[in-house]
Every structure is written in C-alpha cells, then in structure tokens.
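Handout, tutorial session.
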Amino acid sequence: MKVVCVGGGPAGLYLAILLKRQDPARDVTVHERNPRGSTYGWGVTYWRGLLDKLQAHDPASARAIEEHSFRWSEGVAHVGDLTTRHHGDEGFGIGRHRLLDLLATRARALGVRLEYEGEPTDPPAGADLVVAADGVHSALRTRRAGHFGTRITAGRNPYIWLGTSKVFDAFTFAFTQTEHGWIWAYGYGYSGEHSTCVVECSPETFTGLGLDRADEDQGIALLEKLFAGILDGHPLTARPGASWLTFRTVTNETWHDGNVVLLGDAAHTTHYSIGAGTTLALEDAMCLAEALGAHAALPDALAAYQRRRQAELLSVQSAARHSAQWYENLPRYIHLPPHRMFALLGQRHSPLLPYVPPQLYYGLDKAAGRLEALRRLKRWLGPRAARALHARATARRD
C-alpha cells in the first residue's frame, strides 16, 4: 500500500508512524509545505488520558513526548487584584516545534519518507491512500468542499497566540478590566524556559483599546502593561507575521472522497479554550490506523473511521461551543466572587449553564458534588433542559 500524507503536523506524522508499525512494507511519505525545522505556534497542551493512549499505540514516541513535556497540576485565576487557586488533574505542555521534531525522528527511524517545502494541492497520482492532514485551510479539502460538505463558522472574539519567558507553574487565567471592557489571557508552561500566552477579548474591547490600529510593537507593549501582574517583568513575544484572528470552527459532513481522507484540523476544529486540538488530531490518527488495520477494503476502512470519530467528537464539539460562548458572555460571570467564577469557569462546557442564573447554578453544582443522586439527575436533566430552553429562545427570536 502506498500512502501519501499531505501535511507534516502531529496528525500526519503520527499516522505515518502507526501505519509503518502496522506494516513495515507500506510505502509512506509525508509532505510538509514549510522548511524542515520551522513551525508556527508555541506550546500545545494535553492530559494524562492522551499519554496513556500514546503509550498503547507506540511506546517509543510516548516515552519521548512525556520526557520532554512540562507538567502542572493546578489552575489559578486572577480577576483584577483577586486570585484563587485550585488543585486539578495533571496537565502537560510541550513545544510544538519539539513535538514535531520527536515525531519526525520516530517516523524516519521506521522508514517514513519526509519531504519538506512542497505540498500537493491535488491528490498525488499512484497513491492508494491520500491523507489530507494539511490543517484548517486544507487545500485538498477546499478543492472538494462541495463533496465534503465543508462548513466554516467564524467566532466572535479576537484572539492572538503569543509566547513569554515567564514560566507559569499552573494553568493560568488572568482577567483584566479596562475602560473598554474585559481582556483576558490563558497562560501555560511548555518547557523550563517558555510559556504560551493566548490573549482574547470582545470585539468592542479590541477596537476600544485600539488593538485593531496598533502595529505589532505597540500592541505587544499594551498587552505587557495590561498583564504585568502575571508576567513579573517578562516580555511577550509574537511570531513573525502573527496577527489577531477569530476562531474558525470547521466541520465536514463526510470525511472521505475516493482515496482521499481528512485528518485533524482539515476534518474538524474545536475552540482553543478547551485545549484539545492536538489531542483530537492524534486520536484521529489512531482511529484511522486502526480502521485500516481492521478492514481489507479501503472504502470500508474510511467509512468505519468516519463513523467512529464523528460519534466520538459530538460531546467534545459541544463542550467547545459552550466554552467559547462562556467567554463571549464573560460579563455574566466575571463579577462573581473569584472562587465562584473559577468554579463556573470549570463548568463552562455545561449546556445548562447559559440558561440558569450563575449563583443558582453554583449552588446546585456544589450540592450535586455532595449527593450522588443529584449528580445523576444533573447529568440526565442538563442536556434535555438545555435543548428545550434553546428551542424556546430560538422560537422567540423567529
């Protein structure tokens, strides 16, 4: 079998690793548009559950990734001058450049060909399977968008990915009030020397602060001033060409067309506020490799991959939508006492939260934590009540 992966991100590289482990005789090539060693982004996050899956699929790459990861087990929220800290599950951060280098090294060791500074925009001739792992702006998907049923929805809030030499010892949220509204940052370490810092705000705050008109140096200087309390004198850094964006949610009705199949961000995206993008891309690769190993006929394998992953993503995509909406409606929550606001920040994936007064939801959630019967009722009632309330609100608007 000849396999061509278009896109040398985590999804394409890890799929290549798994396919060669399944059958060393497979001819597997990964094409990456960027030069070798270059990448965008800062650090990515993941959790213990992903590491366990990596260990089950390829222990060698799992060990390398864990060895080079930064860890934390707490979350801290700064709201103005107030701070609250909570212990949570163990989290991991790793530099995107380091992750890609580890996966590329492992892929080469298994016999995968890696070709840089070139990426086909049409399916390569002679390939039995073409994997479109070329990201949110996938050229392969775009050329067949009608077949795939691609839908791209733009989010409301502007955001920008930055780096800093301030190493956060916990997953850090910082909310700063300005005369034009709130602006906030998510910070997490990904090495002993660097952290990622994502900054977000409403469109009104963005224009009110003049960030839409500021050049890069002016914008960075303003953000350093606004978040001086968590940066401790460390600078913020932007990649060349970095700009403010709005998040693009990508969905596709079908993920395969003939011998072309979508993987990772080319198939789906989930809002960065749940920190799951890299995890989902790697899980796509695991699922596709398993489907190809279990089905002799390619159409059967691709259909099985799509069915399973679309089903598995339903709850994650719902959580991502509600998480994005929580931040888009920040004034609803920001004036709660910090420990309550932080608790509801942790509950932002709930479909019921937007429809229940925040103080009441906090009380119900706290009571549910003490009573198993109430927890079960909340899990059962929440999605149903949310659907009914959403339908009622939609009907009123119509």
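The second record follows below. Compare its token runs with those of the first.
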Amino acid sequence: MVRAAVLPAVGSPLEITEIDLPEPGPGQVRVRLTAAGVCHSDLSLTNGTMRVPVPAVLGHEGAGTVVSVGEGVTHVAPGDGVVLNWAPACGKCHACSLGEVWLCADALTGAGSVYAHRSDDGSDLHPGLNVAAFAEETVVAANCVLRAPDGVPLADAALLGCAVLTGYGAVHHSARVREGETVAVFGVGGVGLATLQAARIAGASKIIAVDVSPAKEELARKAGATDYVVASETTAREIRALTGKQGVDVAVECVGRAVTIRTAWQSTRRGGRTTVVGIGGKDQQVTFNALEIFHFGRTLSGCVYGNSDPAKDLPVLAEHVRAGRLDLSALVTEHIALDGIPAAFDNMIAGKGGRALVVF
C-alpha cells in the first residue's frame, strides 16, 4: 500500500488515502516518487475545466527512482532516476508523422485505464494525466519515463516534466524569441517563472513580467524580469510605454483567461507574436474584429506542452541547469508534504507564490 491524493469526483476535495498498486506488467515501470510539482492543470482537473476519468490520482509533474520493471522494458532499470512524461507520443498518428509529437492524438489514452485500487473499498482508480504523481509510488507505461539527466537533483528534475518544458518551449519553440527582442510574460506562477528564465536564456533585451500580485515582483526579477507591471486595465498601455510606445515583440500568456489573452495580444507591436500557454475554460471567449486583425498583423497561437519533444529537450534543459543558466530552485516557493496539496490548490486560486513542490 502507498499513500496518494485521490480525486473521488469532479468538484470534490482531494482525499489523502492508501491505495493498492499492482506489480508492473509487460511494458510498465514502477516508480518511487522523489518529488512532484503542483501544477495549475491539476487544479483544472479537479474543477472540470479539463476532463479526466474519476476517481483518479492526480499529479503529472514528477521524478523518482525506478523500483521494478515489467517484461520488455530495457531503457530503464531498478535504481535509475527518471522524469515522468505525462504526454508520451505514440509515434504513429498524423501529428507524430509530422514531427508534432506534442499534439499526439493518443498521448492521453492511458489516463482512461484502471491502474490501481483504493485500499479501503477496492474501487478502481485511474492515473490522472497518465502518471499519477501525487502518490508515494506509481506504475506507468514505459514510455512515460525518461532517464533523469546527470547532474540535476531528482527533486529539481521533477520540474522539468511540465513547468520548465512548457515555459522553455513556449519561448524557444512556439514564439521563437530571438536575441534582442522584447518579451512580456503574463502570470508569474511556476510556468511563468520558467518562461521568464527561458526569455533571459534566449537573450531578450527587455523582459516584462505581469501579474495581479505586487508580491511576486521579487520572484519575477530573480527569474530574469527587467520590469514588473501589476495587472490592471492599463496594462497594455504601460507595456507600450516601456517599449518606446511600440509594444513587445512577443507576449506569452500563462493564465488562460480571456481578458489576459486579449491584453497580451494588445501589448505586442504591429507584427508581434502572442503565445497562449494558459489553459482556460470554454466560457472564456476571446473576440477580435476583422479590421484590427488586418491592421496589426499580429500572430496569436496556442502552445501545448511548450511544443516540446521531452526526449530531445530534456538534455538541452539539463545542460542549461548544469551551466547555471537555468535555476530550477527559483521556481519553487513552497516545499510541502502530500497532505499539503489542497492548501497549495487554494494558494493557486488566490494567485499566491510560484510552484509548490511535494517532497516525499
């Protein structure tokens, strides 16, 4: 038996309880978690913004040590450190054939399986977003684990599995920020802090962080922000004032709200690029008129998992960490136990802090 955070139903509070995990079958790996990040996507699963089969064990950003492997697994062995990959590409669908593995049509099929059972009543449990990282141990498909990079502590490596891949990819793969360009990042949570660091690594000349909380300015500047704007009705105007009345070259939206997406778009120069990372609900409708689309010539694009290929990008990120260019500890504002996840959700709702990290 292992302890885990179970979502019994959409809209219900998490329950910290014991679950029974089977031994890994063919093509599976059992992992003892070292750490797991508490991501806004987990919160979106609890409130129904994103759908997940329930009851489920949530958590998708994690790293740990291989306990045992099933038949046919050869790329990892017991004792190996691994990073969980919650969206493994099938390699066969149309998106994968185009090299767009982040859009794999079958990446989340594993989330519908039954992978464990509650110890108290034997009820079936699904692995939220494939990997069920909010547990002391988990059993996942072999393609959901990547060998942890050398020289990166496992607790830090957990952040590579979502926040850093997403933020780095938004800058380098989606927006393709060039040296000397100006960047605005909307939302200074875990992903936003990773995005700020990625913009600094890309050589952006001015990096403007935007958040509703004045308290996050120090966090933002430590991550690479050169300027800080407290979100208001005048945000776009303030950003233009900071950029010679032109607007930034690139805006990255990490919130997922219609008003923020619209403001991010308005904050860019003519011909600027806006990348939307935040996950919003269906009720968040963003509107544009045809004339402004023509006149401003701006680009608005979605960004899934940072448009990243984890197998290729993890070594790149690890090199940035080893070289001191990427500070994973700067993303974390709170270390918690499994029981602290509900409170971490409350902090996210209130817009407090960066990444909360569950340490086992």
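Points raised in discussion: The chain is about 25% helix and 25% strand.
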